[in-house]
Amino acid sequence: RPRRGPAPRAPGPATALLNSLFDEDAEVVKQATAVVKEKIEEMSAEERKKLGETVLKFMSGARVRKSKTVTVSCLRILGALKDPGMAGVLLEQTGRKVAPPIRAAALLALANIDYSQMKNHAPICRKLFPLLGEDDYADVVANALTVLWKLEIGKEHGKEMLKLLKGQHHAVRMFALKSLGSVGGKDAAAKLIAALVGDDHKMHEMAASALRGNQQFAPAVIRELRDVRDIPRAWKLANVLKSYRNAIDKATLKTFLAKCLKLLDGNEGGFQIYFEILRSAAPDLLRENLLRRGRDLLRRKKFDAAQRALALLEREDLATAETEYTLALAELKLAG
Q1: Which of 78, 83, 176, 231 could form a disulfide with 164 if both were Cys (CB 3.0 to 4.6 A apart)?
Q2: Per-residue pLDDT for the chain (336 aa), expressed as one digit of tens each?
Q3: How far apart are CA 140 and CA 128, in angstroms?
Q4: Alpha helices, DSSP H only, in 92-200?
């Protein structure tokens, strides 16, 4: 097709393919982009670097800057390179004044980058956080989140995460909640525990995951469990504490054991909460004390209570020949 003025020329074998991005046939442009992206998979690191430089030079041409379609195609190619060194260039195309198709393409390209070797993610995070408050969820917020989920959110972003918890988009609040797990601190613990015991199931699951991922939250969760009286709420806290294991101090374990045995002796509900925490964090302590309690009850001829206590040790991870024998004895006594 006849063209007005010379197209920008890129050095090397990529010239023809990049120039074909100006074709008026959308299918040709699509195929040209796909071909370049396919070739990238076969390129060496040095070849990828050269292609990136070629595309950037190509994009600097006046004709490319005036074409949204060509710019979008170029951004897709840059994303396919997966080069973290391109992050700065791509971020420049995510501002509010940039055309929506270009913004979306830049964010998608950023999502393709491999950030595993990048030491400092903070500059990228700071650029993307403001986008999470925009109204356009599909093309801006969702794409920005896709990038952010791949980045490390550090303690320096704590205030921003607390702010995002009040955001208009549920997915943003979920992201902020999960990120608080790596941020840590008292404020993060309070927000995570509030979501953990709240009514929003998805937020509960996210908070549980964040809390389990950072054992530094153990003291805050323990304090909350000590004060709670509602059994369903206590179970939510216990299910997190089960994952901490070595993070629960001996004094707390003994306190949980005393509560477990007291509730068990009174045949009250709720003893299972402490039983499951101890089963995970201190199985030997739990086994030893339940076996001792069962034997003591047998001596006092409280066979029903003895059987109830010893039956808890039937679990595969708790049972021993000694516990099985003592339980069998209790059941024989109970049968009369």
Answers
A1: 176
A2: 444 444 444 445 555 567 666 666 667 777 877 887 888 888 888 988 988 998 898 888 888 888 898 899 889 999 999 999 999 999 999 999 999 999 999 999 999 999 998 999 999 999 999 999 999 999 999 999 999 999 999 899 999 999 999 999 999 999 999 999 999 999 999 999 999 999 999 999 999 999 999 999 999 999 999 988 899 999 999 999 999 988 999 999 999 999 999 999 988 889 999 999 999 999 999 999 999 999 999 999 999 999 999 999 999 999 999 999 999 999 998 887
A3: 10
A4: 100-112, 122-128, 142-148, 158-164, 170-183, 186-196
Q: What angle do CA 112, 162, 154 make, to 5 degrees?
A: 50
pTM for the model: 0.82
Contacts of residue 205, Cβ cutoff 8 Å, sequence gap at least 6: none
Among the listed residues 39, 29, 18, 143, the one whose alpha carbon sits nearest the alpha carbon of residue 93: 143
Block residue for tokens 């030893």: 288
191-226 burial: b if 16+ Cβ within 10 Å, else e:
bbbebbbeeeeebbebbbbbbbebeebbebbbebbe
